[in-house]
Specification:
This protein has 6 helices and 7 strands, in the order E-H-E-E-H-E-H-E-H-E-H-E-H. The chain has 236 residues and is α/β, with parallel strands linked by helices. A 7-stranded parallel β-sheet has the order 3-2-1-4-5-6-7, sandwiched between helices. This is Short-chain dehydrogenase.
């Protein structure tokens, strides 16, 4: 599908990667862009439609789907991450549950609400923002890694289900992206503009999965070759 004349809904669109998705959608000629945010007053980008949306709130999700009944492209970008002391420490289960609520169940809730919308509008596309840690677990953010692995599996499952209604389901994988979420990490980062540019190019090319940086592509290639992998964030 083309971004030009598409009707786009972006979750977590008030800042960071979500804001960049909204900006580039407008620049590419999208007919309309809905910008979901828990606090719509923080959505200040001219030309978008702010939508109150907490992906963990069933009423918000239902209201968003009713309001945005013309959507042809859903971008599940909203996500959370926390630095952790490890999976075996006390309290790790609570952090994992909290992270799963947004990164997995929030994506599922949006997908369930908008799949019929996409179907009615010809199929369209759905993009889930995943990660390099969909495939390898980082000791710095292990709970986040688990949720992204689960979200990758969810993406693959949804792709099978929505194929019959002609919906393109895309998984976007990336290493560190230069946003507020990674501000405390002294590592090589990809610019949000480059991530979004590649994401939209993949959608327009009809691709089902895209890895936006060399390290992520190397991890995916190693997986396909059955190579044992360690945390890529520790590698030079």
């Amino acid at each position: 599908m083309k971004i030009e004349n598409a009707v786009v809904f972006v979750t977590g669109a008030n800042r960071g990667l979500g804001l960049e998705f909204a900006k580039q959608a407008l620049a590419l000629g999208a007919k309309k862009v809905y910008a979901g945010s828990r606090d719509p007053s923080k959505v200040t980008l001219p030309g978008v439609i702010p939508v109150k949306l907490d992906v963990n709130n069933a009423q918000d999700v239902a209201a968003a789907a009713e309001l945005a009944g013309d959507v042809t492209l859903l971008i599940n970008n909203a996500g959370i991450a926390s630095v952790s002391e490890g999976l075996t420490r006390p309290g790790s289960a609570d952090l994992l549950r909290k992270t799963l609520e947004t990164n997995l169940f929030g994506v599922l809730a949006m997908t369930q609400a908008f799949a019929p919308v996409l179907g009615r509008n010809g199929g369209g596309a759905l993009l889930n923002v995943l990660s390099i840690v969909s495939w390898v677990n980082s000791p710095v953010i292990p709970e986040y890694s688990i949720t992204k692995s689960a979200a990758w599996s969810l993406t693959n499952g949804v792709r099978h289900e929505l194929r019959k209604q002609n919906t393109q389901v895309v998984g976007l994988h990336a290493g560190y992206i230069d946003t507020d979420l990674t501000s405390g990490f002294d590592v090589e980062k990809t610019a949000p503009s480059d991530v979004v540019r590649q994401a939209y190019a993949a959608i327009e090319a009809g691709e089902l999965e895209v890895s936006v940086d060399e390290k992520t592509r190397a991890v995916k290639q190693a997986l396909t070759q059955g190579v044992y992998l360690i945390d890529p964030s520790t590698q030079s």
